[in-house]
Amino acid sequence: MKGILKVVSKQILKKYHQDASDWLYSLNSSQLEEIADLIFTCDTLEELQSLIHK
Asked: Which of 8, 27, 37, 44 could in theory staple to 31 by disulfide, Cβ–Cβ 3.0 to 4.6 A?
């Protein structure tokens, strides 16, 4: 899980220019995998977060 967390965190930082580490650490591995797919279609971090259910 550490690997995907690092990759997703870096993608979010590059695309949205925001650090989402605290939020990402609260998610499970399947949610992180979902983010890896959704990041290509979401225009904002808020939109991405709204699609990931905790």
From this structure: 27
